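Practice problem 4.
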């Protein structure tokens, strides 16, 4: 009998590293897309919501306080987003200053709106080396009770985010998709 425990632990660690964003420890773009696609392909008749979250004026933070501060802001915002989330939510950092979350079973559009408000509130200030940095996020969300692909959900969430960015930032926009009879 051969002990393969150490080998299995090493393999699991390599898998985790390949799926994680090294800075925030959230899923990276590829892993997030794969996990969400698997979920959407399996789900039946339940709604889901995809939220695209963008840090407003992130370039200003990097330019003013430096890139190390920018990295800390990304980490702290990722942590704040996780703290207001539900354990079943899936989070990822898709690049730069953009995050995604999939809410598997949103109870209502009002609950998604409340969730967006909580996200905005929880990420409004980050401390870096004793300095309080005012931060804000914009959230584009799509709530769907129909079967849409990840790419379709992403496109709609991106459209919603575009609407927020064009109307002042530090806010959210929700697009609802449902069957019409």
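Answer key:
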């Amino acid at each position: 009998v051969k002990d393969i425990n150490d080998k299995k632990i090493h393999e699991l660690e390599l898998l985790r590293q390949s799926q994680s964003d090294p800075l925030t420890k959230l899923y990276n773009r590829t892993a997030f897309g794969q996990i969400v696609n698997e979920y959407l392909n399996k789900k039946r008749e339940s709604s889901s919501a995809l939220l695209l979250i963008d840090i407003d004026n992130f370039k200003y933070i990097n330019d003013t306080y430096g890139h190390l501060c920018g990295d800390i802001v990304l980490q702290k915002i990722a942590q704040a987003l996780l703290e207001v989330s539900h354990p079943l939510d899936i989070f990822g950092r898709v690049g730069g200053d953009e995050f995604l979350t999939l809410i598997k079973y949103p109870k209502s559009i009002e609950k998604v709106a409340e969730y967006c408000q909580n996200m905005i509130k929880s990420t409004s200030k980050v401390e870096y080396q004793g300095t309080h940095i005012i931060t804000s996020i914009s959230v584009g969300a799509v709530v769907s009770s129909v079967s849409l692909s990840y790419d379709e959900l992403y496109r709609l969430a991106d459209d919603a985010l575009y609407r927020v960015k064009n109307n002042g930032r530090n806010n959210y926009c929700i697009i609802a998709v449902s069957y019409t009879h």
